[in-house]
Amino acid sequence: MLPTIQWKKGKVVMVDQRNLPWEETYLVCETYEEVAEAIEKMAIRGAPAIGVAAAFGVCLGLKEVKDKGNIEEDFSRVINRLRRTRPTARNLFWALERMESTFKKYKKLNLPQLRKKILQQALEMEKEDVKINKRIGFWGRELIKDGDRVLTHCNAGALATAGYGTALGIIRAAVAQGKRIRVFVDETRPFLQGARLTCWELSREKIPFVLVTDNMAGFLMQKKMVSLVLTGADRIAQNGDTVNKIGTYTLAVLAREHRLPFYVAAPISTIDFTLKRGDEIPIEERAPQEVREIFGRCISLSNVEVYNPSFDLTPARYITAIITEEGIIRPPYRRSLLDLKNKKKREKSSSFNPS
Length: 355
Hints:
Elements: E1 5-8, E2 11-15, E3 26-29, H1 32-40, H2 47-63, H3 71-83, H4 90-106, H5 111-140, E4 149-152, H6 167-176, E5 182-186, H7 193-205, E6 209-212, H8 217-222, E7 228-231, E8 235-237, E9 242-245, H9 248-257, E10 262-265, E11 271-272, H10 289-292, E12 293-294, E13 297-298, E14 311-314, E15 321-324, E16 327-329, H11 333-350
Parallel strand pairs: 4-5, 4-7, 5-6, 7-10, 8-11, 10-15
Antiparallel strand pairs: 1-2, 2-3, 8-9, 9-14, 12-13, 15-16
Helix pairs in contact: 1-2, 2-3, 2-4, 2-5, 3-4, 4-5, 5-6
């Protein structure tokens, strides 16, 4: 299983996903600014992976602090820089909120002890993410039958997480059961996460797959070549509305028209319970050259106007089920997700030990 990101000898080491599938190279970050730039420039991407990267970035930020004279100001500067990297993925903000909570709890410790507590939290989040993804795979594998042909979009595999993957984790788990599965991989323009990253992961796992362009999905469904659609998510509102890589909404509408299941796989940390509806989720817009160019070569007019939203919104009514580490969530999502939130609160309360 691929280690997407690791803490090694006081540095953050991550697979540089911009170079895949041609080269497996690693980016070494020694400062929180370098981590922030890696997130912004998509050397690392995928909501859970971004969250873990941000947590490690906080650890590097504290390493740069020389004394506790202005510790709260110094910590806020680090947090705020990382918070500005990408606006859509919920896991980024969830991870930073968790680091803030840890800081508040231990800020009275001396600087070496505080750094140790912050690092322990980040390492725990990394381990948790892999465990969570495997639980998502455990629940989701029952939704895939032997012989199914699964259409995916973007990359929701090990590269998008600390390891194993969400949507691809389900496929891995189903294959481990002995099910024969064929995957149709959407190329996922404009950054080609499907063509470059999902194909690379599936090839390493020896899972049969076929690469298709994004605009072939309707044709495949019309010809009854697809059994179900399975994607990840970047943020989910409390009513089940889901924001994911641009093009996801199109697949959901097509799946509904062709009476195919449309499943979303995501950890609970991707659910934003502060937002009632998906239209409250900010949609990141990225640089026009990502559309004008492919690998540095212009494919259109060099000055053509470009609109480049990185994500779109899939209304909850198009989603058959949301697969989390706590099980499969089905409509009505507002009630189901609230029940899930309350369950997690009860579990946290019952595990509280005042000593």
